[in-house]
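Structure first, sequence second, as always.
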């Protein structure tokens, strides 16, 4: 059975992707994009509350967010559409 739709992958599939392909780190590049575009992209992508989005934004501009390559590329695209530059880096195994 194929699952269709949007949203996060089921836990088992996400774990299999991480085991097979490894994790990716996404960081916001220091610049003058501002907090509002970052918060909007995070809320749109993850359907977060404003408080949760602020926590993720702090992680994004600090240590970075870690996830599957697809998750992080999807978020990076949402940020790019809002003129927020990012970097994607494979996490060493």
């Amino acid at each position: 059975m194929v699952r269709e739709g949007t949203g996060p992958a089921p836990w088992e599939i996400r774990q299999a992707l991480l085991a097979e392909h490894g994790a990716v780190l996404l960081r916001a590049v220091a610049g003058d994009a501002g907090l509002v575009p970052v918060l909007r992209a995070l809320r749109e992508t993850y359907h977060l509350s404003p408080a949760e989005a602020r926590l993720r934004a702090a992680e994004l501009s600090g240590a970075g967010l870690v996830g599957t390559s697809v998750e992080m590329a999807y978020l990076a695209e949402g940020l790019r559409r809002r003129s927020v530059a990012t970097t994607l880096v494979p996490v060493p195994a």
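Margin note: The chain has a mean pLDDT of 89.
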